[in-house]
Specification:
alpha+beta, 19 strands, about 30% helix
Length: about 550
């Protein structure tokens, strides 16, 4: 691990600086990029001018406007930012072939054996800084032996750990404690934490020499270990505010109190646990676009553009022997915003006749705004597709073609329903090898599973059409089938019954629903016209009693 060198590149103002590259006149103004979170609009990126005037990421946009006069706000375009980061990934390929995107605003580069090509690590870092300056981007970098250490140095180098104590917390303590807290001076003992000066250059602190990971990470705050906010707060309350404080604790005690996630992050940062960089991406990229001479805003015009693009996209897929699973229709508006709709398919295909109706179902979700000046279709998920040809005798071939057409009709139906309610909401049943009634079938996604071939296994006894969790009956706790019982607030009188069918729980599994022990099932007809599925649980870890579990239609 000592020979491995990892470079982390963090672009803290990626969204705002991308806007400035598109509109250079915004460089001298306070600019923020706004994203919608639920029903609120919050700041997700700021430029240097806005940050200098007190605006910060995560702040509600109304508060940002109140404290910064003349603030310019732009809507976030997630698709454009992701594409811009992909362009930066290709730029970083000049330093190493092993480059991967990390989140939506960072890159990670494996520099092992590559730094000498640029005259050493210091010279390579200088080239990165100069290139980013020419691109108009702010970059914080970290260089260390591990990916976790490089990530920590890029974001927290030069920052001092802060106390989790606040004035509100001190006011809630006893009077004697408050008097002692007022006399404290050092921040570790409860005083005010020093404020990190982010304006000073900490470049010399962002490069950890080979084998110097421990000394480089020790003074950093525990948040540099990529922990969640709750774990970071718990460590701070225990006085473990620096990475060095955590590294000096027994690992077994940390794992018992905070779980294995904290220990794993420590191992990744120190190089004890592997954290590879996988830059491999799909070999094929299928997308087509069309720029429009005049903005359009009608659904018919958008579909006309789709009709011109879709055959070309499908032909590209067909030439490579692939079929799309998920298609994105991207409409770029004149105000630099993008509207995106996704269409999922139950089976991979490159047939435009089967795809177009699904797009037409969702085309109304596109908000044209002041007009759309570019359309783009992209197959975001695609798979190898093997053409099936019916062979054999004339009769066998006709039957195979009929089965193939029937399967296509079902797949098209699943695709149309999935465009409305989502593919994950459409399921099908497959038989399962279990004598437990509620486990005799397994629920599978219809889009990612095939139909069951063969007859459905016959049950040992009658099974209801509707089945639910056992509901207790108002009856005596006796194994004898009651003549009168209450169910769902109504009194029922038994007319006839068939049974019993005894079912025992699976002894090798502890199922909470079967802690009632053995069950004797009865098909019972009542005077109210109901045909119910009742059973008597003989009791194991639960009390014995009568229950209703299903209804025969």
């Amino acid at each position: 691990m000592a020979d491995r060198r990892i470079l982390s590149l963090w672009f803290p103002r990626l969204g705002a600086e991308r806007m400035i590259r598109l509109e250079p006149e915004l460089g001298d103004q306070a600019l923020v990029v706004v994203a919608e979170e639920g029903n609120a609009q919050t700041v997700c990126s700021v430029n240097v001018e806005a940050q200098g005037r007190g605006v910060h990421v995560g702040q509600p946009i109304r508060d940002a406007h109140a404290m910064c006069d003349g603030l310019v706000a732009k809507s976030r375009n997630v698709l454009a930012e992701k594409r811009f980061l992909s362009i930066l990934r290709r730029w970083a390929g000049k330093f190493s072939p092993w480059v991967s995107e990390e989140g939506w605003d960072a890159l990670v580069v494996d520099l092992t054996g590559c730094a000498h090509l640029f005259g050493g690590e210091d010279a390579l870092v200088a080239v990165v800084q100069d290139d980013c300056t020419d691109l108009g981007l702010s970059v914080h970098l970290g260089l260390a032996d591990t990916r976790g250490a490089a990530w920590a140095l890029a974001r927290y180098a030069g920052q001092a750990a802060q106390s989790n104590r606040s004035g509100d917390a001190i006011d809630q303590e006893a009077r004697a404690t408050r008097s002692r807290a007022g006399k404290r001076r050092h921040w570790i003992k409860g005083g005010a934490a020093p404020v990190a000066d982010m304006s000073r250059d900490t470049r010399q602190n962002r490069i950890a020499g080979a084998g110097q990971t421990y000394s480089a990470l020790s003074p950093l705050p525990v948040a540099a270990l990529r922990l969640d906010a709750e774990t970071t707060a718990q460590l701070g309350r225990l006085g473990l505010r620096c990475v060095g404080d955590v590294l000096g604790q027994p690992r077994a005690a940390l794992a018992r109190r905070f779980g294995r996630g904290l220990v794993l992050r420590l191992d990744q940062a120190m190089g004890s646990a592997p954290e590879p960089i996988s830059p491999a991406r799909p070999a094929y990229h299928f997308a087509v676009r069309m720029s429009l001479p005049e903005p359009i805003g009608l659904a018919d015009d958008v579909m006309a553009g789709v009709d011109r693009l879709l055959p070309n996209l499908c032909q590209s897929l067909k030439d490579k022997g692939r079929g799309m699973r998920c298609l994105q229709v991207q409409a770029f508006r004149t105000d630099h915003a993008a509207e995106v709709i996704e269409v999922g398919l139950a089976r991979p295909t490159h047939d435009p006749v089967r795809i177009r109706p699904l797009i037409a179902l969702k085309i109304g979700d596109i908000d044209a705004g002041f007009g759309i000046d570019m359309l783009r279709l992209e197959a975001v998920q695609h798979e190898p597709l093997h053409e099936r040809t019916a062979v054999g005798h004339l009769g066998a071939g006709a039957q195979a073609r009929a089965r193939h057409i029937k399967a296509q009709d079902i797949e098209d139906l699943i695709g149309r329903l999935g465009a409305r309610v989502g593919l994950d909401s459409i399921t099908r049943l497959h038989p399962a090898s279990s004598h437990i009634p509620e486990k005799s079938a397994q629920i599978m996604s219809a889009a990612w599973s095939g139909t069951y071939d063969g007859p459905w296994p016959k049950a040992q006894g009658p099974r209801p059409v509707l089945m639910w969790k056992p509901e207790p009956l108002g009856a005596q706790d006796s194994p004898q089938l009651p003549h009168v019982f209450r169910w769902r607030g109504r009194e029922h009188r038994r007319i006839r019954a068939f049974g019993p069918e005894r079912v025992a729980p699976e002894w090798w599994l502890d199922d909470p629903n079967w802690r009632s022990g053995q069950r004797d099932y009865w098909v019972t007809e009542t005077d109210r016209g109901d045909r119910l599925w009742l059973f008597f649980g003989h009791g194991a870890t639960m009390s014995a009693g009568w229950f209703c579990q299903g209804h025969f239609l």
